[in-house]
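tool=predict chain=A
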Amino acid sequence: MITKRGQLKDHINFVLAVKDRLWPNIKIEEFLVVYVDTRNSPPNFKSKFIDSDMVTNEPIILGFEGTAHTAGIAIVKGKNIIINKSATYLPTQGGIHPREASEFLSKHFPKLLEQIFHELPFDTQRIDAIAFSQGPGLGPCLRITATIARAISLLIKRPLIGVNHCIAHVELGRMVTPAQDPLVLYVSGGNTQLITYLNGRYRILGETLDVAIGNALDSLGRKIGLPHPGGVHIEQKAKSGQQLLHLPYAIKGMSFSFSGVVTAAYKLISEYSVSDICFSFQEYTYAALAEATERALSCTKKSSLLLTGGVAANMRLQEMMQGVASEQSVKFFVVPKDLAGDNGAMIALAGVNMYKANDFIDVKNSQVIPRWRTDQVEVSWIH
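tool=predict ok
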C-alpha cells in the first residue's frame, strides 16, 4: 500500500473524486474507512467475496489498465468484450513524464468509469472480480490504477486480481485468436520479448538488451521531428522510402539491441531524407526481430507464432513475421489493430483466466510491482 503521507493524501483525493462522481450518496467517512483501513479487509477473498449465485462458467471481469500513457477500462464476460474504453496521454514535447502521465490517469479514470457504468447492460453486482495492471510500468501510474481498483473491489465486495501487463498482452492474443500454445513475439513501447510457455511459467527466450522497439521508434521520431507516438509516423514515412541506408544490426542469439540503431539513424539526418531513414530503420530493426524469431521457432518447434503488443499494428512488421512463419511452416496470428496497444480489455481477459484459477490477491498485499518480469509470474491457469 501507499506509505508516504503526501502520496496517501493525493490518492485519497483521487478516490474521493471517484466517489463523488459515481457514488455521491455514500458518506465520506464510510468511503474512507473502506479504502484506508485495509487491515480489516477479509484475509481470504476467495471464500468471502464470491457469492455462489454469481459464479458462472463465464465470469464477468472489470479490468483496469494504467501502466504508462493509457487509462483503459473494460468489462468482459468470458472471451466476449462487452465494453472497452480508453484515453491516451500524448506529451506535448519529449517522452512520457511519469508524474504528468499519472495526473492524466487520475483525471480520466473517473470519467471512463462513469461511461462504463452508464453503458453497462446489467447491474454492477453482476461483476465477479476486479482486475488491474499491477506491473510492470511507471510507478506513479501503477499506483493510481491500483488505488481505484482496490476502492471498487472493497466497495462492491468483489475479489481483486493483480495482472502482469506483459502477460496480459499474451493472454489477449490467446483469447482473441486461435493461437493456444504459440511462440510469442511481444513488441511494445516498454518491452520486446520472445516468449514461450513451459512448466508453469512464460519463459523469455530472447529480449531487448537495452530499449524496447516501441521506445526506439518513439525516440527516433522525436529526434527527427515527428509527432508522438513516433512509430505510427515512421511507418507512414517509410512507405515512401527508396534507399536502404547502412545501419547497425545488433543481434545476439535470440536477443537484440536497438539504442545504437537510433543513434546511427539520427546521424544520417543531414545527408538523407526522413523517408529513407525511416524505411531503413524499420528494415534493420524488424529484420533483427525476424531473425531472432526464426531461431526461436527452430528451437521450440512451436506450431504457431503470435505477434502482440502495440508495435504489432505495424504492417511491415506483420509482413516480415508472416514470412518467417511461412518459411518455418507454422501458423501466424496477430492481435487486432484496435487491441494491439494498451487497453483495459487485455487486463480483463487475463483476469478471466486468473479468476477461473482462483488466482486472487488481498488488498493489503496488492502493492504495485514496477519491475515485474514476465518470467516471474506463476501461470496457474494453464495446465
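Residues 238 and 278 are 5 Å apart (CA to CA). The chain has a mean pLDDT of 89.
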